[in-house]
Structures are given as structure tokens and as C-alpha cells.
Design a protein that fits this description.
Blueprint (H helix, E strand, L loop, with lengths): L6 E12 L2 E12 L3 E5 L6 H9 L6 E6 L9 H4 L2 E4 L11 H10 L15 H7 L15 H13 L5 E5 L7 H18 L2 E5 L3 H7 L2 E6 L2 E6 L1 H7 L4 E7 L2 E7 L2 H12 L4 E6 L3 H17 L14
Bound molecules: adenosine-5'-triphosphate (ATP).
The site of adenosine-5'-triphosphate has 10 residues, from helix 1.
Keywords: Antibiotic resistance, ATP-binding, Nucleotide-binding, Transport
GO molecular function, one term: ATP hydrolysis activity
Main location: membrane
């Protein structure tokens, strides 16, 4: 079965220690089949370590992990063939030509083809999908950095994976390649119903791509929700400004829609030049990470985020 109860990933109480340092202090989350989940967090938060455990490349210290219905510590080649992995670092195959390499990598997946999922992905179709059709017959050593990154993505997708891990996939891509890549992620989700777990430091990318975001900081999950749910967690960050009686007024409020409704109910036609600046995902991210870092440094002193309106 591709999943257990519609879930591609289940993590419960995951702990990881490197020597005497505990990097993950009991992390729990689930990812539904077909969901695009972005894992965010500061450098060193444990994102890559978490993904490596899910991929079966790193042993956990404690906790329960289930990926596509299997404990990754016990994963077989057949289980691994159902996943696609795009790592942060380049693989080095300088003498291969692009098409040859993809055809070879694809052939490794052929034994795992099923009537439902035909493996591998047709090489020409895949080259077109990642924008490498013109480079198909070039040796890999002559590709630009961005083209090599596209090839990394193609290698991760050639087996028509049910679950794709993308570790900072758009680093080094130009804006057009980045936009094409976002379209490709949507395509693999929509056409193949693949589950996608992506790590990125680009909050704009996370907001555009992810159905759900998890923020990891100080060894734990500090937020888990849709981009707009996360943004709403940071109360008092929507800025509403308007002109009334010739003077500009400014308020910072938790819910700008409700505030504007009240404003119009009260002052009606005399409101001019209403502007609302919603809290951004970046505002939310920075506040949540800052809170987690302060809580870790001074466990007793951290005050909760303010709620409601303030000047
Ligand atoms: N093999 C290792 N041995 C010891 N410590 C390690 C090892 N790998 C990672 N670490 C440490 O574990 C912590 C988490 O690292 P990890 O690479 O998972 O973070 P990350 O969130 O992916 O960071 P980045 O955003 O910089 O990629 C870091 O403090 C790192 O130094």
C-alpha cells in the first residue's frame, strides 16, 4: 500500500542525538498523501537530519517513524524506489550526457514499475518538464549551475516517486527557472498525486508552494499550519491605516478584516484612504523562531505574543 490511512509520513516523538548533543527533542507530525509540506527553520535546526531519518539514511535515537507504510530503518530497495530525493549537494557525473544519465538512472526504476505507476518517467517528457530539452545531448560538465540543479531535480523525479524529498531545491536557480520549478512541483502533486516534502529558506517560495508549513527551531516544532494560519498566529501584526477628519490614523490589530468592519460600522462614509498591510509569513516566521530561541535561552522569562489591538 502506498500509505497508511491516507498518510505518507507519520512521525511520533522523534529524537536524535549526535554524541551528547540532542538535536531533535521529540518531534511529531504527519503528512497526508498528495500534500506539499515545507519544513522551515534556522540553520542547524535539524531539517536535513529529519529528512535523512525519513529517507532511511540516518538512524534515530528514539521515537516512531513511518514513511509510505514502512519504518525507514527497515526500508527495502522496493520501498526506496517509491521515493525521489533531491539533495543539497550536486552529484558528480561530469562525463555523462544529460539524456544518458537520466536514461540510466531511470532504468534502475524499471523493475519497480506497476500497472498504476509506470516507471521510469519518459526521458524526453522529463527533460521538457525540467527545462533541459536543449541540453539533452550535452556532457554534464558543461552545464551551468542552474542547469545542473534542474538535472538534480530530474534525477529525483525519474522514478515517478510517490513521495519526493526536496532539500533546498531552488538554490542557484534564476527567477524564471524557479517559477518553472514551482509549476513542476504542482504538476507532480496534481498529476501523480505525489507527496512533497521541501526544505527552503525562501519564505516566499514556501508560501507559494506549500499546503502546510512546519517550523522547526531549538529541536522542536514551533508552528504547524497553512501559511495563513501561521501568519494569523502572530497577533497584532496587521497594520490598518485610514484618514478620518483630515488626520491619518494607524492601528496594529490581530484581525484586520474584523477591525475594518467595525470601523465602517462606526464611522461609515467619513473614512478615506483605508490601507491594510497584512502580517507576512516572514513576520510570523521571525517572531516564532525568536520566541523559541528566547524560551530556550531563558525558560522562565518568555512572555506570550500580545493579542488584540495596539497602537
Ligand atoms: N554528522 C553529524 N555529527 C554531529 N553533528 C551533526 C551532524 N550532522 C548535523 N549535525 C548538527 O546537527 C544540527 C542540525 O543539523 P542539520 O543539518 O539537520 O540542520 P538544518 O536545519 O538542515 O540546517 P541548514 O538550514 O543549515 O541546512 C546542527 O547543529 C549540526 O551541526
Amino acid at each position: 500500500m502506498p500509505d497508511s490511512g491516507g498518510l505518507s509520513i507519520e512521525v511520533d516523538g522523534l529524537r536524535l542525538r549526535y554524541g551528547t548533543t540532542e538535536v531533535l527533542h521529540g518531534v511529531s507530525f504527519q503528512v497526508r498523501r498528495g500534500e506539499v509540506l515545507a519544513l522551515l527553520g534556522p540553520n542547524g535546526a535539524g531539517k536535513t537530519s529529519t529528512i535523512e531519518i525519513l529517507e532511511g539514511f540516518r538512524m534515530r535515537s528514539a521515537g516512531r517513524v513511518d514513511v509510505l507504510g514502512v519504518d525507514p530503518a527497515l526500508g527495502t530497495e522496493h520501498w526506496r524506489a517509491r521515493m525521489g530525493i533531491v539533495l543539497q549537494s550536486w552529484r558528480d557525473h561530469p562525463k555523462w550526457r544529460v539524456r544518458e544519465l537520466l536514461a540510466f538512472q531511470g532504468s534502475l526504476y524499471a523493475p519497480y514499475s506497476t500497472p498504476v505507476i509506470r516507471r521510469p518517467w519518459d526521458v524526453d517528457d522529463l527533460l521538457a518538464a525540467v527545462g533541459l530539452a536543449e541540453q539533452a545531448d550535452r556532457p554534464i560538465k558543461v552545464l551551468s549551475g542552474g542547469q545542473r540543479r534542474r538535472l538534480d531535480v530530474a534525477i529525483g523525479l525519474v522514478g515517478r516517486p510517490e513521495l519526493v524529498f526536496l532539500d533546498e531545491p531552488t538554490t542557484g536557480l534564476d527567477p524564471k527557472a524557479r517559477r518553472d520549478f514551482h509549476a513542476l512541483v504542482r504538476r507532480i502533486r496534481d498529476e501523480f498525486e505525489a507527496t512533497v516534502l521541501i526544505t527552503t529558506h525562501d519564505l516566499d517560495e514556501a508560501e507559494k508552494l506549500a499546503d502546510r508549513i512546519i517550523i522547526l527551531a531549538e529541536g522542536g516544532i514551533v508552528a504547524d499550519g497553512t501559511p495563513s494560519q501561521l501568519t494569523r498566529q502572530i497577533a497584532g501584526h496587521d497594520e490598518v491605516s485610514w484618514v478620518h477628519g483630515g488626520a491619518r490614523q494607524v492601528r496594529h490589530v490581530a484581525d484586520s478584516t474584523a477591525f475594518a468592519r467595525g470601523l465602517f460600522a462606526r464611522d461609515g462614509n467619513s473614512i478615506r484612504e483605508l490601507e491594510i498591510r497584512r502580517a507576512t509569513l516572514e513576520d510570523a516566521y521571525l517572531a516564532l523562531v525568536r520566541n523559541a530561541e528566547q524560551a530556550a535561552a531563558h525558560p522562565a522569562e518568555v512572555a506570550p505574543e500580545p493579542d488584540g489591538a495596539s497602537r
